[in-house]
UniProtKB/TrEMBL annotation:
Lineage, broadest ranks: Bacteria, Bacillati, Actinomycetota, Actinomycetes, Streptosporangiales
Regions that span the bilayer: 27-50, 87-110, 150-171, 177-199
Lineage: superkingdom: Bacteria
Keywords for the protein's UniProt record, in alphabetical order: Membrane, Transmembrane, Transmembrane helix
Name of this chain's protein: Succinate dehydrogenase
Length: 266
């Protein structure tokens, strides 16, 4: 059989584009806003980790929880424990930074966000990227993104700790239950959004029932999978909402600790 060369005329007729894209809308707006949003989180996170005003009874700033060293105020220590003892004197947030940070950094949605906004790979649909090669996530360093499923388990622990902190926020500075301040509500809302984002993770959906062949034989797992799937459908929204809720909650506690916010029911 003779080989046809039917592709040759087609190739010659292809339009030779000398522009990056033919799109006339503001395609650059989304990656620009995404870049600004993620940068604000990074800048705030660096400041918060180094800031020492992270505890105002009964509130503890989320970026510094859990507090696991004796250098932490007694009321801020997680479960009253200090397993890292006296030798650790650095900011408490550095101890747990890699757990929620690693979970968000390797999250499928965030990967898409910073690939497009920071690396322009690609910046938007139907817009060419400046890179000449593409290897995906098959080699270092991006192959490390595959550890996301393991960060999920650690993120669940951090989410549980933040929920525990929100429960403790219902106490007053004397340890009496029944206190409800603005900080209580902020920490509670943050804990809910953190769990919605964490449980809506694609890895959670797969772990819940992603490998089942017969849902009918596993009704409880099917119900859990259905619930997680609903959260997963809004994973992008929960990613942004929880990112800003944890910043707002953290900043609020620090402002109370610094005395900047000081009013009844704070």
């Amino acid at each position: 059989m003779t080989q046809t060369t039917a592709e040759s005329p087609i190739r010659k007729q292809r339009a030779q584009l000398n522009v990056r894209t033919l799109r006339t809308d503001r395609w650059w707006l989304t990656p620009a806003l995404t870049f600004a949003g993620l940068m604000s989180f990074l800048i705030y996170g660096i400041w918060a980790i180094l800031d020492k005003s992270y505890f105002a009874e009964p509130y503890i700033a989320p970026f510094s929880s859990p507090c696991l060293a004796t250098s932490c105020p007694e009321g801020a220590r997680f479960l009253g424990l200090a397993p890292f003892g006296d030798w650790y004197t650095l900011p408490p947030g550095l101890l747990i930074l890699g757990l929620p940070g690693g979970f968000r950094l390797t999250c499928y949605y965030y990967r898409k966000s910073y690939y497009r906004s920071f690396w322009l790979s690609p910046p938007a649909c139907a817009v060419s990227e400046p890179h000449t090669k593409y290897s995906g996530e098959t080699r270092l360093p991006l192959i490390i993104q595959n550890v996301h499923r393991y960060f999920f388990y650690l993120a669940v622990v951090i989410g549980a700790i933040l929920a525990y902190d929100a429960v403790l926020a219902f106490r007053d500075e004397h340890g009496n239950w029944g206190h409800v301040g603005l900080g209580t509500l902020i920490l509670l809302a943050n804990a809910v959004l953190i769990f919605c984002y964490t449980l809506g993770c694609h890895s959670c959906r797969h772990i819940t029932a992603g490998r089942l062949n017969h849902f009918s034989k596993h009704p409880l797992r099917y119900k859990a999978w259905t619930f997680v799937s609903k959260l997963n459908a809004r994973h992008q929204q929960f990613a942004w909402a929880s990112m800003y809720s944890v910043m707002i909650a953290d900043l609020y506690v620090r402002l109370v600790a610094k005395g900047v916010i000081n009013f009844p029911f704070a």
